[in-house]
Model the fold of this input.
Amino acid sequence: MYRYDEFDNEMVSARVAQFRDQVERRLSGELTEDQFKPLRLMNGVYLQLHAYMLRVAIPYGTLSSRQMRMLAHIARKYDRGYGHFTTRQNIQYNWVALERIPDLLEEIASVEMHAIQTSGNCIRNVTADQYAGAIDEEIEDPRIISEIIRQWSSFHPEFSFLPRKFKIAVTGHKNDRAAIKLHDIGIVITRNGEGEVGYEVHVGGGQGRTPFIAKKMTDFVPRNKLLAYLEAVMRVYNMLGRRDNSYKARIKILVHETGADEMRRLIEAEFAKIDASNMLTLPDKEAQRIMAYFAPPAYETALATSDILQAAQSANKDFTHWCATNVVSHSQTGYAIVNISLKPIGGIPGDATDTQMEAIADCAATYSHDEIRVTHEQNLVLPHVRLDDVKAVYDALVPHDLATPNLGLISDSIACPGLDYCNLANARSIPLAQDISTRFADLHRQHDIGELKIKISGCINACGHHHVGHIGILGVDKKGTEFYQITLGGAADENASLGDITGPAFTEDKVVDAIENLVDTYMNIRTSADERFIDTYRRVGMPPFKERLYAD
Amino acid sequence: MAQHASKHAAFQALTANRLLDGEVVYFTESGTWVEDFAAALVVESAKAQDLLTRATSGDYEAHIIEPYLFEVADGVPVSVREIIRAKGPTIHSHFTKPFSDKSV
Ligand code: SF4
Done:
């Protein structure tokens, strides 16, 4: 894993001291709220409905067990005993008191964590495939270039006051688990004809009020030129992005209004200038230095199959189900990737208590080379588990309600905080996710239905990714009451697509029935159990679903 | 749900968050900010702006942030948003705040 160097340490400590002073001045009345608000936002502190919320960055979703233990400690000491993992691979605390935040930040800085660039109109925390460095057929670990981007973008003066926030995601695998086409910049690590590693760059994706799938700007940028290329994209955006209207300020609008071809031309022209100056050419030595941090762990030599695992599977059906759903094969022979569902039946998607976090930290320390990953689908991953240890991990997770075998199934939904916490919300998201999960509690039924991604947002800002849910649910406000609009056919993977609205919105008490009607319709018309919900929708389109949904 | 008070509201109350910890607070008749909605001062809409002006002037304003008016009818907040702010999140029963409507 990446370790802070002297510069990182100084930068984070200086920021904590600066924020402590700002909080003191706010509490003494020296700073007004108007003066203080942008300062707190730069440090990840939002005001929500009931309290302040602090968002802590988890760069590219990677945590050590020491860091996870610290997150548990923070939950216990400064919050109400839990934290919420978000769709941006971060963690949010919902109940922190302003006066205690400087102490909190000082504590997390001791394990190389911070809340910088988790808010505001800057380049936000870079996200990456949660299976980085563990999945077979990966071209390169995406965390390497993510870390290089982090170092380039942190406190970059030119990009601290962009027209709007800016999000970058990276995948090193053909199966996109990082939703890269829904980001301002999405990067796919690739190889050219000569076998050299480089980057395919997509620009202008995003969700929110006006969703767009990103457009491919280039097939290949060599490793040492990527920062120059990204700087070129940022410069074009900074120069031409709309600052007069926040609804039109994201780069997706610029790409849409300018056209992909013209945008490509503008970026290339800027890129040529920066490249000629050689200022941002990444020295090979520096790339190698960062790469060393992400070298594979010291794997043991092991067989491709495990007698211990097989015996455990023969003896325990629940364990077998969990393995089939939540355990993924690893690039290293004799190892597996273990997914920890944070979606127990009827639970709150993405929430973890202090004791759960500690249990996961223990598992990572003992069984996963000290590593944990956060997924944008609000689950956690132990990336490097020996096949011989998979049952021991399962046994450690079960008592903490962390072994629900539902990865990718209907109860594994994404839900934003919604109106239970969020100041911008129209409607609640979490209770809906809980009700759907409870309605489909029968795991046999869930497995029978197969992969089905439900994504729920409490308002058009789309933090719950509803546009790209196979079934998306969007909370809308009608005169102070909650309604829900349903979309079908969205996807966030390499075949990304935006969902289509079914029709009029549903009242809260009708939504779960509506979801069940959609599922029943799919089950009746799918050609086989292998045809997923999204495949069926793409084959038949909206009519049969709509007909059933609005039959009464 | 960002807009809190409808133009046709007959009665309104004034809420904010406490500067120190973000807790939801309501403005009372005696000029204090308290956590309990039952103690909130409810006024006819015609007088609501005056209430906002009074509450955000002088000493009061330093201890709270983002004050705004919201609609009250039959002794309870009208919008789901304000009911949730008054009662706490609906998803953790142990975080629910004591809540009594003003008609009791
Ligand atoms: S989608 Fe809306 S309601 Fe949900 S967290 Fe984002 S801003 Fe809040």
Q: What stands out?
A: The beta strands of chain B are 11-18, 24-27, 33-34, 42-44, 64-73, 76-77.
